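haha ok so turns out i had the wrong file open the whole time. this is the CORRECT one, sorry everyone. sequence first:
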Amino acid sequence: MISRTQRILFWLLLVSSVVMSVTLLRLRERAHDRLLATADTLSPSLPVESRPQSVTLMIANDMDGSMYAAVRLLPLPADRNARAHVVLQRLIQEYAQPGSPHPIAPNNGVSGVFFMPLSAPENSGRPGVLAVVDLSESFAAAHPSGIEPEMLTLLSILGTLHANFPEIDQVRFLVGGQPRETLAGHADLSRAYLASDAPGIKHL
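then structure:
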């Protein structure tokens, strides 16, 4: 037979187990709430316009080395840097679609776009604007190598920026936040490009 002392120990252990289980459940719920609160703090939502706006994407075509304008509707943030980022990300997404005329593997694409003032050009009353486009390292690594596909990508980005942000005069490219000589071994990233450098535009 079980002694009285053993019965007391059994019930004490049972009660302790129940208390510990309840405590662990409450601690897990609190930790989950803290994680959600931290995520909300670290990833604030960008202010977005209530209705989608028309943007023009300059789509490159590998078949004949040309570009054509395609209009898309996008919800855009109010901030100009963020707005340019969203537009270029949509451009890169177009190239990742099946049947793309300029196929590029799906990846993060553009890490950010930053507008910076330039000194006013001669005989011009307004200061110039430089757009710095920071391409992701995964985008550069996945990009097809070759002077033509690389240049078409750069000209597509230039044309898209020029179509949606006509105030831009020059564009510089970074990769992973750092200067880089080429995109994937050929197209020059060491210099600034004029935003109006995209030739051969065909409009749909």
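The beta strands are 53-61, 66-74, 110-118, 128-135, 170-175, 193-194, 201-203.
again sry for the mixup
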